[in-house]
Specification:
This protein is α+β, with helices and mostly antiparallel strands. 32% of the residues lie in helices and 23% in strands. It folds into 2 domains: 12-157, 2-Layer Sandwich (60s Ribosomal Protein L30, Chain: A); 169-337, Phosphoribosyl-aminoimidazole Synthetase, Chain A, domain 2 (Alpha-Beta Complex), CATH 3.90.650.10. The protein is globular, with a radius of gyration of 21 Å. The structure holds adenosine-5'-diphosphate and magnesium ion. Mg(2+) 3 binds at residues 42, 87, 238.
């Protein structure tokens, strides 16, 4: 569906593993002062000094997490970086280094991997992160990418999932549901394309939500903003699987309950209009969609004046005692229990 403008196809076998690694990694520059040794030895070296170090890994598998018929490889590289940086942000930490490992089948030419690495490189420059290593191997089927992100944080600034207290406010950054609706649009276009390969998708009405799906941003800016506002959340998690499953994680790990207000959930107008077009309830999408990579946090009521009116942060509810349970307060003011229907890698119901 997305046209391959790059017609040159150099088989990977022409280079061999070592030349391939060298080719893909030759332009990476070290910018972090904590990186002592990057790519090129048996292991990288990081000197984190008096900070704490946070580490997070994600694995992305073709056919499970992405579909190359509508995801350009450059976007995939960028997104793979964001998925990991977002986890570091959710610890209230600053991502500083990554390692990138790939397993690739010989159906991919060198040019495809160059595209993937162009996305990785763009993300590393924009977010000021050093690519310090990885591994490269062959795969008998599709493409597999695993990125490990490393970050630093002052011991006093770390925010866990487990710190929420009754009466804390529940706050969401940005808006949610866009990435899921973007995926719906792309999947619909893919079906149209299957029937009529000459059709050119017109995505102009859906630019925001398609971008939310294909080119998400980790909310490093929110971590910086919280620091500027002098707000340390009591708990935090990134929204990768959907608001409902993330709030359940926070509540369970903090031993608390919550009231989430349906009419407070931040939705972009394009999400609302696309939900209407697809005849889907926008609250269901916001609760269960996922892949928005926004931050969900709880903050003390005392900090409310500091975030009040900030367009990047929306209060969507508050934390209650555990025995009150976890509820969505609907527009009609009825309370319904929150259950996790978020996307789940193993296809199970996570409740
Ligand atoms: P080893 O034999 O010790 O696994 P490799 O030959 O796989 O070493 O890797 C050589 C160097 O290149 C190492 O520094 C490694 O971290 C880095 N590297 C290997 N594959 C990748 C990759 N896909 N992306 C970035 N760096 C890589
Ligand atoms: Mg290796």
């Amino acid at each position: 569906m997305i046209e391959d403008k790059n017609q040159q196809r150099t088989p990977l076998s022409e280079l061999g593993e070592f030349k391939l690694i060298e080719h893909l990694t030759q332009h990476f520059k070290i910018t972090q002062e904590t990186t002592i040794k990057g790519i090129g030895d048996d292991a990288a070296i990081i000197d984190i000094k008096d900070k704490q170090i946070v580490v997070s890994t994600d694995l992305l598998v073709e056919g499970v997490h992405f579909d190359l018929s509508y995801v350009p490889l450059k976007h995939l590289g960028y997104k793979a970086m964001m998925v990991n940086i977002s986890d570091i942000c959710a610890m209230n930490a600053k991502a500083t280094q990554v390692t990138v490992s790939i397993a690739v089948s010989n159906r991919f030419p060198l040019e495809a991997l160059e595209e993937l690495y162009a996305g990785i490189s763009t993300a590393s420059k924009l977010y000021n992160i050093d690519v310090i290593g990885g591994d490269t191997t062959s795969s008998t089927s599709g493409l597999i990418i695993s990125i490990t992100a490393i970050g630093e944080v002052n011991a006093n600034d770390v925010v866990l999932r487990s710190g929420a207290k009754p009466n804390d406010l529940i706050v969401v950054s940005g808006d949610i549901g866009g990435a899921y609706m973007g995926l719906q649009v792309l999947e619909r276009e893919k079906e149209v394309f299957k029937v009529n390969p000459n059709s050119q998708p017109d995505l102009s009405m859906y630019t925001y939500i398609v971008e939310r799906q294909l080119k998400p941003e980790a909310r490093k800016d929110i971590v910086d903003l919280l620091q500027q506002l002098n707000v340390k959340p009591t708990s935090m998690i990134d929204i990768s699987d959907g608001l409902s499953s993330e709030i359940i994680h926070l509540c369970k790990q903090s031993n608390v309950g919550c009231d989430l207000y349906e009419n407070k959930i931040p939705l972009d107008p394009q999400v609302i209009s696309t939900c209407e077009e697809f005849n889907i309830d926008s609250t269901t999408i916001a609760l269960n969609g996922g892949e928005d990579y926004e931050l969900l946090m709880t903050i003390s009521q005392d900090d409310f004046p500091k975030i009040k009116g900030n367009p990047n942060l929306t209060v969507v509810g508050y934390i209650t005692e555990k025995d009150r349970g976890m509820h969505l307060v609907t527009r009609g003011e009825t309370k319904i229990p929150i259950i996790a229907k978020g996307w789940n890698a193993l296809g199970e119901n996570i409740e």
